[in-house]
Write a structure and sequence with these properties.
Length: about 425
């Protein structure tokens, strides 16, 4: 498969995509006149998820019968509305092959325990022969039924799991219950949420014989943008959210620490200077303890908008909090700050929440209790659970409510360990 250059991708989009021609013309950009080499890259208007959502899937997709199958990827919707993207393949970064060669698993029995909308990524990569060698056993579990999935793992003698970090920790107990020790897992491939130091420590303890891969990805792209393993101690010391960048499949830039991504693949919806919403610091020529060739790495920080955050299988959205507290707004302004942290508690990862509101008058214990009650009852943090549901099941600690007179905006902050490079 030909790997397009940056210039070829820009002219591919200009020639084949009505969506891009209209978008660029609206912003007074014409590559035939305005783009000559990489120094002209900043002339290209930045694309956002809002721009993609403004067009239907068919309006922004370039379809070609020669592509064969298309796979539907669906975003989690943490930005408000899920985004549906078509892809004709999924590619694995070079680092994945590098680590798989080091691990040298003679027989791969693979179980993916991710939402159905994520399964197409593994089907796409598997059909293209880029993910697992021939002769591998491939099975999809049910993320909503751990016992059923653990039974599958037992029967296929699974040694390779694909899931979210928080799911991996919860699933380990079900494996034990079904008589299949987590120590038999040789490879964990984790995606779908940021990885904290608490999660790293817990995973190494529970899956004591596994090499662990952590990925940084987005629905819109054809591959993981960043990837690292449990062998990358120098990356981990830098930040729990630091990764080797996938420069084969993407061209990366930053603008005021915001990550801009251009995919070097002729996708149905090409990505040209796509702003994915994450604050990022890129470092060149980084030599890691894992032995991978020195190259670009990225430290991923908070989201630029600070109005949503996904961690531990849960979504926190400012809009949900505003909606829940609307009936109490005579007592405080709309400004708030939610600080999310993740800790290891007994046999699972637990989230702690510090919630600060800007008050109009002096708060009372009665008001504090009323705020806590309405947040727990009304705020949904997954498709099936409210905040109160998650607290009742022990996934989230009871919310800690504070008051301040100095807040100037509403924001949701990630764990502080992700913030130190961005303060």
């Amino acid at each position: 498969m030909h790997q397009p250059t940056l210039r070829e991708m820009i002219f591919y989009a200009w020639k084949n995509s009505d969506f891009y021609r209209q978008f660029w013309q609206t912003h007074n950009f014409n590559p035939e006149k305005d783009f000559h080499d990489i120094s002209d890259l900043k002339k290209i208007p930045v694309l956002t998820k809002t721009d993609l959502l403004a067009a239907t899937m068919s309006e922004r997709s370039i379809l070609n019968s020669n592509d064969g199958y298309y796979f539907t990827d669906i975003s989690s919707g943490t930005g408000g509305k899920p985004l549906v993207i078509l892809k004709q393949y999924h590619s694995m970064p070079l680092y994945f092959d590098y680590i798989l060669d080091l691990v040298k698993i003679s027989r791969i029995s693979f179980l993916a325990l991710r939402p159905t909308s994520s399964a197409t990524a593994f089907l796409g990569a598997g059909i293209a022969g880029q993910f697992l060698p021939r002769g591998s056993i491939i099975s999809l579990g049910d993320v909503n039924d751990f016992i059923y999935s653990a039974t599958i793992a037992l029967n296929i003698e699974a040694n390779f799991l694909v899931l979210r970090p928080a799911t991996a920790i919860s699933f380990a107990a079900s494996l034990e219950k079904q008589g299949y020790s987590p120590s038999k897992i040789k490879f964990l491939y984790l995606s779908g949420e940021p990885i904290t130091l608490a999660a790293i420590s817990f995973l190494r303890k529970v899956y004591s014989n596994a090499t662990i891969i952590y990925t940084y990805a987005m629905t819109e792209g054809p591959a993981s943008m960043g990837i690292r393993s449990s062998l990358c101690t120098t990356l981990e010391d830098l930040s729990p959210n630091a990764y080797h960048l996938n420069i084969r499949d993407f061209f990366f830039e930053t603008s005021d620490k915001a990550l801009l991504v251009t995919s070097l693949h002729e996708l149905p919806t090409p990505l040209i200077r796509f702003k994915n919403g994450d604050q990022t610091i890129i470092k060149d020529n980084f030599q890691c303890s894992c032995g991978f060739p020195a190259g670009k790495i990225a430290i991923i920080g908070p989201r630029s908008g600070e109005d949503s955050y996904k961690i531990g299988n849960f979504f926190f959205q400012a809009s949900e909090i505003h909606k829940a507290l609307a009936k109490l707004n005579e007592f405080f302004t709309e400004n708030f700050e939610l600080q999310v942290e993740q800790i290891a508690e007994k046999d699972q990862l637990v989230l702690t929440l510090d919630f600060t509101l800007q008050t109009i008058n002096n708060p009372t214990p009665f008001l504090t209790d009323a705020i806590r009650e309405v947040l727990e009852r009304e705020v949904r943090i997954s498709r099936s659970q409210t905040l109160g549901d998650a607290i009742g099941k022990g996934y989230v600690m009871p919310i800690n409510i504070r008051f301040s007179s100095s807040l100037s905006t509403s924001r949701i902050l990630p764990p502080q360990e992700f913030m130190k490079h961005f303060l």
